Amino acid sequence: MLKKIKKIKLCLINKILNKRCFSEAYRIKLAVEIESLYRRKAIKNQGNRTDIKKNQNFLRVNTNKELAKLAKVSPTRFSQMKWFLKNGKQYLSPELFEKKYEKLIQNDTTIYEVYVSVRKIRNKQKI
User: Fold this and answer.
1) CA–CA distance, 123 with 108 (Å, rounded to integer)
2) What is the DSSP letter of 73?
3) Count of Cβ atoms closer than 10 Å to residue 2 Cβ
4) Spatial CA neighbour of 29 closest among 91, 93, 90, 102
5) Cα(38)–Cα(101) distance, rounded to whole angstroms?
6) CB 119: neighbour CB atoms within 10 A?
7) Residue-wise pLDDT tens for the chain (127 aa)?
8) Residue among 39, 104, 112, 119 at smallest CA distance from 74
9) What's the predicted TM-score (pTM) here?
10) 48's torsion region: left (phi>0), alpha (psi -120 to 50) or beta?
11) E strand or H helix at 32, and its extent?
12) CA–CA distance, 40 with 76 (Å, rounded to integer)
């Protein structure tokens, strides 16, 4: 039953990701939600030697690049949004985080602008 639910969720997310009418931020958020499925492919390859010619069936898996392709954004944008989702709450108040996140979802600001502003706050806190 649980596997069926995961398959349905994956199918729905893939359908949403194929539509351009959603903002980049929303598509990236959905792609991050299914990241664990893509990580499994990478985990299978761990321990395989890539320098041996006999290992021709070895598939390199870059999870971030694959998910960025799935969300139809650049790998850099994907990484910036993923960093914001992971670390934004740590450096921003919950209200400010939600405000910036809503602006991203509504395409009122760019992922890069939000990323840079949060990184500046982080750097000030470190000093």
Assistant:
1) 25
2) S
3) 6
4) 102
5) 25
6) 15
7) 657 666 777 777 777 777 667 888 888 888 888 887 777 766 766 666 555 555 556 566 678 888 888 888 899 999 999 999 999 999 999 999 999 999 999 989 999 999 999 999 999 887 7
8) 112
9) 0.74
10) beta
11) helix 24-33
12) 22
